[in-house]
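Revision sheet: structure tokens.
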Amino acid sequence: MNRKTTLVAGLAAATLTLGGTAFATQGSTTADHRTAKASSAQSTAECNKRVALAFIDLAFNKKKPQEAADRYIGATYTQHNPNFADGKAAFVSAVADYTKQFPQLKEEVKRVAAEGDLVLVHTHETTTPTDRGSAVVDIFRFVKGKIVEHWDVTQAVPETSANDNTMF
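Predicted:
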């Protein structure tokens, strides 16, 4: 093999190697992008979970609904509980009235889960220290780290149960 053939063969090998490296890098970048995107979604879900928990604690346990609304509710707030109106002001008014009516109200978080832009918080709500309370599941929808929509499901904790399991 002469010098010219060796040079051409070397350039061809380098091109294939660079092309292969470029392809591998591109493939890695795509895989990394998917991982980063999944990681980002997971990170967003974790942040939303922390916000939901802080929101419940501040509004209900610390009895500061105005501060909770200002800090954690978005520009719009759609309410799906038929007993409450939409909007931040309606939330503040309803929670302020509720916490005045039940000054010993406590929301004890039992579990929290998040998927996409939704966070579900399962709590044991009691209005007095001796109250059996209610099992509550709040569902919050988030946009850019702020709560913009809310659903809830509530079930009173019964005196007796057909099974030995707790509601929590």
